[in-house]
């Protein structure tokens, strides 16, 4: 994922095939050794001015890995996936584009 | 001679290919609308789901006025099996003129939301509310228990659920709703001309696919292309089962509005009959994540659940208030849509399509191919 914050710790997202209008989960991995206290996940469709209809449920799996469940993309098109990670009181935002057919 | 045969084959194959108008990308999108029918899975929140005896009892109750407090009408009075489980009335007439068009009851198994405003997250809950709604069947829990006890169905009911006299009236209500739900789960639309086309494409049988009318193919291209219909009407049911503002006015009168999803969520989150509640038979609460995590927004106001388009040619009039008399009117609505009627801060999806008469006819041909052949 990309971030506008300079020298931001690297964050990686893993996801299997995303089913249209059906729930799925993603795994968010903070690649650096730096401790992350909280991760928030959301997504929007910039062209349509709407986001997710359901709030993702985040579970810390340890070793900087977080599972976000109840993700649901209810329309095909370009989604902007957003992750906010909290590193010792500093929140850093990451984005990644996902095109769903 | 061998050369002549080969040449003839190439010409024939080329001619057949020319009748399938879709590009490779459009073919891939078309495959996402199937296969049909989809496989049935029992409802884990309903312990009598897919039970043969319960399904038969549910069918009998559905068609019997015993479920209305005064025996005035049955479920089938508004959801007429001879009219695709709806009627031709714009808005349903229960004890009063109701706010919305009667939805068809086919292909309901396994949905995430039920009703135009999504006030139920299970089919049994959606079956329960009309029984005790004062404007519809009008029963109380107590009167329903008495009616079932004194009906010809009592032996079947007790064979399935045990002695009724030791059941709390609310349990009788839930059991009755789950019985109706077991029956409703069995109602599905059959295969259509579109499904034959879609499966032929999947099997790369272009000769069979070419039997699908070119007008319907052009309509399909509009549906997944410039029309943007596929944004909401997607998947094998042609519905994402979520809620959108379609630009249809939500005023019921000069002083009343239909708040749609906004009111549906208020209702859902304030009643006990959800997949997260104690009346669900699923100990794992598999579907409860929906009611636990659904987000609320002021832009829910006046949005309505995307209806499935399977069998849509059989269920006019259309839209949540039945205000558009047929498919032609629906297509013209989206073609000429007044975007001023849309939520100012809602999703930005719809815009005037400005379809030609030929395009309107093509889109109608495609939508009609989603219904059974007369």
Distance between the termini of chain B: 46 Å
Sketch the topology of chain A as an H/E string, one letter per element: EEEEEEEE
Low-confidence stretches of chain B: 1-18
> Which pair of protein chains has the largest interface, and what are the residue counts?
A-B, 21 and 22 residues
Mean pLDDT of chain B: 93
> What helical percentage do the residues of chain B reach?
25-40%
Give the number of DSSP strands of chain B.
Answer: 2
Fill in the CATH topology of chain A.
Immunoglobulin-like
> Shape of chain B, please?
globular
Structure characterization notes:
- The complex is a heterodimer of chains A (101) and B (374).
- With 101 residues, chain A is mainly beta.
- Chain A has strands spanning 11-14, 23-30, 38-45, 50-51, 57-62, 65-72, 77-87, 90-100.
- Chain A has a single domain, classed as Macroglobulin (MG2) domain (Immunoglobulin-like, Sandwich).
- In chain A, 0% of the residues lie in helices and 57% in strands.
- Chain A has a 4-stranded antiparallel β-sheet, with no helix packed on it. Chain A has a 4-stranded antiparallel β-sheet with strand order 4-3-7-8, with no helix packed on it.
- The two termini of chain A are 21 Å apart.
- With 374 residues, chain B is mainly alpha-helical.
- Chain B folds into 2 domains: 22-37 and 190-258 and 306-374, Cytochrome Bc1 Complex, Chain D, domain 2; 52-184, Cytochrome Bc1 Complex, Chain D, domain 2 (Orthogonal Bundle), CATH 1.10.760.10.
- Chain B contains 15 helices and 2 strands.
- Chain B has helices at residues 2-18, 24-31, 52-62, 75-78, 123-132, 141-149, 154-161, 169-184, 193-202, 206-209, 214-224, 261-268, 289-293, 327-335, 357-368; strands at residues 243-244, 304-305.
- Chain B has a two-stranded antiparallel ribbon with strand order 1-2.
- The longest helix of chain B has 17 residues, at 2-18.
- Classes of the chains: A mainly beta (101), B mainly alpha (374).
């Amino acid at each position: 994922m990309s971030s506008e914050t300079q020298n931001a710790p690297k964050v990686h997202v893993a996801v299997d095939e995303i089913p249209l209008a059906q729930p799925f989960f993603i795994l968010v991995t903070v690649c650096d050794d730096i401790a992350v206290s909280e991760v928030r996940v959301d997504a929007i469709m910039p062209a349509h001015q709407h986001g997710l209809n359901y709030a993702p449920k985040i579970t810390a799996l340890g070793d900087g890995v977080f599972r976000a469940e109840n993700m649901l993309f209810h329309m095909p098109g370009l989604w902007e996936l957003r992750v906010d990670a909290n590193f010792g009181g500093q929140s850093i935002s990451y984005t990644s584009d996902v095109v769903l057919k | 001679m061998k050369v002549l045969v080969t040449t003839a084959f190439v010409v024939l194959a080329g001619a057949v290919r020319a009748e399938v108008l879709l590009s490779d990308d459009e073919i891939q999108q078309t495959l996402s609308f199937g296969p049909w029918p989809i496989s049935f899975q029992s409802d884990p929140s309903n312990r009598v789901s897919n039970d043969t005896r319960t399904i038969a009892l549910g069918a009998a109750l559905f068609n019997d006025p015993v479920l209305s407090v005064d025996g005035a009408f049955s479920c089938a009075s508004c959801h007429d099996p001879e009219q695709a489980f709806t009627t031709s009335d714009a808005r349903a007439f229960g004890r009063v003129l109701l706010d919305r068009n009667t939805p068809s009851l086919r292909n309901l198994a396994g949905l995430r939301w039920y009703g135009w405003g999504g006030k139920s997250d299970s089919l049994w809950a959606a079956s329960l509310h009309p029984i005790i709604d004062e404007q519809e069947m009008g029963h109380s829990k107590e009167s329903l228990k008495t009616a079932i006890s004194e009906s010809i169905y009592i032996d079947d009911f007790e064979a399935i659920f045990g002695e009724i006299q030791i059941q709390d009236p609310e349990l009788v209500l839930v059991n009755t709703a789950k019985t109706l739900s077991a029956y409703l789960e069995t109602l599905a639309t059959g295969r259509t001309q579109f499904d034959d086309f879609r499966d032929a494409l999947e099997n790369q049988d272009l000769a069979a696919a070419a039997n699908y009318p070119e007008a319907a193919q052009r309509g399909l291209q509009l549906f997944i292309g410039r029309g943007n219909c596929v944004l909401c009407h997607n998947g094998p049911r042609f519905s994402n089962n979520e809620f959108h503002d379609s630009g249809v006015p939500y005023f019921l009168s000069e002083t009343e509005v239909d708040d749609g999803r906004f009111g549906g969520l208020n209702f859902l989150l304030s009643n006990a009959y959800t997949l997260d509640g104690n009346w669900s038979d699923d100990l794992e609460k598999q579907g409860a994540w929906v009611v636990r995590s659904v987000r609320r927004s002021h832009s829910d106001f006046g949005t309505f659940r995307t209806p499935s388009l399977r069998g849509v040619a059989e269920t006019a009039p259309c839209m949540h208030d039945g205000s558009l008399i047929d498919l032609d009117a629906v297509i013209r609505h989206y073609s000429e849509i007044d975007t001023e009627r849309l939520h100012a801060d809602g999703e930005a999806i719809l815009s005037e399509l400005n379809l030609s008469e030929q395009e309107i006819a093509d889109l109608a041909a495609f939508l009609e191919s989603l219904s059974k052949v007369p």
